[in-house]
UniProtKB/TrEMBL annotation:
Listed InterPro entries: ABC2_TM, ABC2_TM_bact-type, ABC_2_transport, Nod_factor_ABC_transporter
Stretches that traverse the bilayer: 35-56, 68-91, 112-139, 145-173, 185-206, 236-257
Similarity comment: family membership: Belongs to the ABC-2 integral membrane protein family.
PANTHER family: NODULATION PROTEIN J
Protein name from the UniProt record: Transport permease protein
Domain of life: Bacteria
Pfam families named in the record: ABC2_membrane (PF01061)
Species: Kribbella deserti
Residues of the signal peptide: none
Cellular localisation: Cell membrane; Membrane
Keywords noted in UniProt: Antibiotic resistance, Cell membrane, Membrane, Transmembrane, Transmembrane helix, Transport
Amino acid sequence: MSATATIPGAGWALADGWTIARRDLQHWRRQPGQVLTVWFFPVLMVVMFGGLFGGAMEVPGGGSYYDLLMPGMFGLTMLFGLEGTMTAVAVDAQKGVTDRFRSLPIASTAVVLGRCIADLLSSIAGLLVLIATGLLLGWRWEDGFAPALAAVGLLLLLRFAALWIGIFAGLAIGSPEGVAAVQTLIWPVGLVSSVLVDTTTMPSWLGVIAQWNPLSSTVNAARDLFGNPGATGDSWIVQNSLLMAIVWPVLLVAIFLPLSARRFRRLGG
């Protein structure tokens, strides 16, 4: 009886979540400038980093710096996307939108699930824009379509985990002003990684921190699957990047998804 009740309950939550997601998608349709900024800012970063640093960077095994840079920028974009998630969730909480949703006869997790669905769809579109940019700049995946698709799957898995961190942070902070202060921490987390350079070129202590950054595991695994130049080093975390590109996001989701749902239920309590 319990299992039978769980299936309709899960379906109810998913249906309600999709309704909330459609509300967010309609907002983006009315304000396309915000969406286009989210999608094309990473393009500007690629052109900037590639143009500024490309001529001075030594790529492991040789080749264009874009071969090293593009998978890193794919991963960095997945991480930086949580800024918009935090802000949107905090704005809804501050304006009372979240409280109005809580008063409706919908599943308790539908609001956070809807935000996650909408933001994940936006992230897919943004990632496709960035992939197209890389192709125009000469970047290519070298090991076939199936491994490349697996790399995209790992990138979206990281984004899915980052979404739940952003949702929890937005609910916990509850104001756009507080979110702005937290957003400054995202840059060091994103850049102290293997996104832009091989971690072996860093001071040893900083290199260890960068290698254990979950973003580095996803980026290194994506580079391997794309067939692009990857990180060097013989540490356990570098040698097991593919495994940790799965373990890190799953662990983060297991922590922050229930925390987000619990925080949502306790709002206004």
